[in-house]
Amino acid sequence: MRLCATGSSEGTAAARTASDSSAEYGGSRGRPRREAEVQESSRRRPQGCIKTSARLKVASLNMRGHTTRTASGAEQCKWNLINQVMRDKKIAILALQETHLSSQRLVDVEETFGNLIRICSSPDPENGSGARGVAFALNQRLTKQMKYEWREIIPGRAMIIHLAWSECRTLSILNVYAPNVPRENEEFWRTLKAANMGSIDIALGDWNITYNSIDRLPSGRDDQEAGNALSDLLNGLELIDGWRKENPLARSFSYQQLATGSQSRIDRIYVNRSLARDASDWDTTEPGIPTDHRLISVKVADYQAPFVGKGRWAMPTHMLNDEVVIKAMKTEASTLTERLRNLSVRSPNLNAQTIFQDFKDRLSTCIRNRMKAKIPKSRKQVERLRDNVAELLRSKPMESEALEDWERRVGPEVALLQNRIMNAELKCFKFRREDIALRHRFQSETVSKYWIRSNTTPLAS
C-alpha cells in the first residue's frame, strides 16, 4: 500500500472590507455605511468555508486504453473525449479503469486540462502505458472547492479517494479494476479485505464478476469461490448493489463482447447502507467514447445540507430565434393585449394578474412543445432503439419455449440494437465536438463571453 500526496483545489475569493471607499464601487465617496449594509455583510459566508453542491453525480467507465484511432487512422487521446463527457453529462467524479496512464502521459493530460479536470492516477507498476491502471477525474466545474486526498490500495487495480463534501461530511470512494482470471479475481478481493481501507461510502468500477444469472446474456454464473470472496468484502464494508435493489428482476448490461455478442453487468456501483436512501437516478448509458463498456452513474445527495428547491424553468435563449416561437409570441401577446383591453369588471378569478399568468402558461407550453419537436432525428432514433432493447429484455419466453432458446433468440437482437445505439452515440458525440471546435474557431480570438470563460479558471457550481 502506498500513501499518495494530498490534493487541494481551494479557490481564492476577493472580499470587500469595511474600510474600502464606497466610491470604488459606484457609491458616494466617504458615505457612511448604513446599518442594513453592516448586517448584510455579517451574513456573508466566512472565508475558508467550503461551498459545494448538495447533489453530486458519480460515474464509472472502463475507457479501454489511452488513445483511439480516428476515421483517418490518426491517434487521438481519449482524455479529450473524457473532458467532454464530464462536461455534457455534468459528472462531478468519474472513476476510470484501464487508463494506461503513465507518469509522462499524466503530465501531458494535466497540462492540457489542468483548469478543467483534476486527475488522481494509479498506473500499473510494470507497464504504466500499456496495461491496467485506475484513476479518478474530478470535474473542476463542480468540485473546485473540495479538498481531497487519495491513496493506492493495489497499484493499477484499486485506489481510494476521500473528498470533503461539506464541513461535516466526507465522501470515501473506492475505484476497482478486478482481474479477469477467477483465481486472481478471488485473491484480489481477499487482498482488499485485508487492507485497512476504513469506511467506504461508494465502491464502483469494473468488477469482472457477476452474482446473479440474469446479469449475463446468455445466463450464467461466475466462479463460486471468487463470488464468495467478493461477498465477504462487501458484507464487511456494508455495501449494497443499489441498482439491483431498485430493479430486482430487470436486465441491463454494461459490457458487450464484440466477438460473440454476449453481454454482462460487470460494471457496478455499490453504496454503503447508510447512503442508500441518499442515492438515486441510477443509469447506464453509452459514453460516446470508443470502448466496449458503457457508462454507469448515480447521483448522491447530502441531506444534511440546507434544502434547495427545484428552481424555475427558463426558456433556452436559442429559442428566441426560432420562427415558430416568434410567431407564437406575437399571437399570444396580441391575445393578451386584447383580453386586457376588453377587461371591464375585475374579479378574483378574472383580472390583469390572472390573464397575464394564463399568457405565460400558454406561451411556456408552446415553447416546451416546440423544444420537443426540435429534438434531432439522431436523438429520437437513439431513444427509439433504447425502448426496443428494454422491450426485448422485459419480454418472457413463450409457453413452449425454454429459457435457453429465448436467450438464443433475443441475445443477437439485443446485441445488434446495442451496436446501433453505440454507433449513433458516437456520431452524436462527434457532431457535438465539431460544433464546439467550430465555435472555438470563430470566437476564441474575439472579445466575448466565450473568450472570457475559456481563459479563466472555472468556478465551483
UniProtKB/TrEMBL annotation:
Domain of life of the native organism: Eukaryota
InterPro entries according to UniProt: AP_endonuc_1, Endo/exonu/phosph_ase_sf, Endo/exonuclease/phosphatase
Signal sequence bounds: none
Family, as annotated: Belongs to the DNA repair enzymes AP/ExoA family.
Basic and acidic residues compositional bias, start-end: 33-43
GO cellular component: nucleus
Name listed for the protein in its UniProt record: DNase I-like protein
Biased composition (Low complexity): 12-23
Segments of this protein annotated with the region Disordered: 1-48
Coiled coil spans: 326-395
Compositional bias (Polar residues): 1-11
Annotated ranges, domain Endonuclease/exonuclease/phosphatase: 82-293
Keyword field: Coiled coil, Hydrolase, Magnesium, Metal-binding
Organism: Trametes coccinea (strain BRFM310)
PANTHER family (alphabetical): AP ENDONUCLEASE, ENDONUCLEASE_EXONUCLEASE_PHOSPHATASE DOMAIN-CONTAINING PROTEIN
Pfam families hit by this protein: Exo_endo_phos (PF03372)
Cofactor(s) it depends on: Mg(2+)
GO BP annotations listed: base-excision repair
One GO MF term: double-stranded DNA 3'-5' DNA exonuclease activity
